[in-house]
Amino acid sequence: MPIRNVLLMLSSHAPPPPREEVAWHVRTSKQAKYTYLVTTKELTGLVPGESSVAFYGDADLNNTYLGRGLFHRYLPLNSSPGLEILSNHALYSQRGYPTTAKGLIALSNIIAAERDELLESLNGTIVPTKLPLRLRNIPKGQARARIYFLTEKPLPY
What is the CATH number of the domain that holds 129? Predict the structure, then answer.
């Protein structure tokens, strides 16, 4: 059965800078059970311990694939655990976060993309278009910020 994953666009126009944000989470995921990434999108249908959350940059970063992590949990920002985690978060309390933030994603095993690695390396199929996950197939407009995709098996970590 295919695995549902999500590709999130990280914006250069909201703090923290996307490359810095991913690098921080890569370092933190090596030291802690989970790291919590702020997201401006609600997430649904992901399977804890199987689904992946991948990141790519906006047009200012040439839509570069930045990396991915293993999904464990989504916490709405207005929940008690979400507010507590955010208030004590080492990255976001110092560097800020998007004003349109909706939640936190608990991730583990975050890995940065290799230099020049493309979205194609995820071997995904975009939901609902069934097109291969590649830059030219990503929808235009707001839909670019959150793209669900399927893989035949969980992505390796």
Answer: 2.30.130
